[in-house]
Amino acid sequence: MEPTGSHEEVAWTIAGRIYAEIIGNQLNWLIPKSCLIKPLAAEATALRPDVIVLDKAELSNEPLWQKEPIICNGKTIKLVAEVVSTNWQDDYARKVEEYAVLGIPEFWIVDFRGLGGWQFIGNPKQPTFTVCQLMRGAYQQQKYRLGDTITSYLLPNLQLKLDDVMPN
Known about the structure:
This protein is α/β, with parallel strands linked by helices. Helix content is 26%, strand content 23%. It has helices at 5-24, 88-102, 118-121, 162-165; strands spanning 29-30, 36-37, 51-55, 70-71, 77-83, 106-111, 128-135, 138-144. β7 (128-135) and β8 (138-144) form a beta hairpin. The mean pLDDT is 92. It holds the Pfam family Uma2.
């Protein structure tokens, strides 16, 4: 199933804001247009995040990268952002666990339509931007609402609010 236009708009805006930070801070990172995450030992299907930030220095350790845009080592991934769709359970449950196991330091869940379950975004449901920071193998989650300034541990100079990524 393909994402909606507004889903793509939000993902593009997030990627653009991260890219500006990468350039402005001269980080040796990359945001590929499309990329799969598939650990070599994994039996599960590959994951295709909406936005993925890679450490260019680690790409030489990726066994498939020169042939196809597949990342096998979690160490290569600096940050993943998922824009929540109607299958919100994947973003809030399955991917939180899988990305933590891979050791991805930061994971953003961008629920601009407030689709997630009450246990994830509260009641009443509202647009929510969740920053998950990996601490001792599990994600510590911080939720942000419209008007809140988002804090990224990997990008401490990032000036971003959920309002900035909402579709027009």
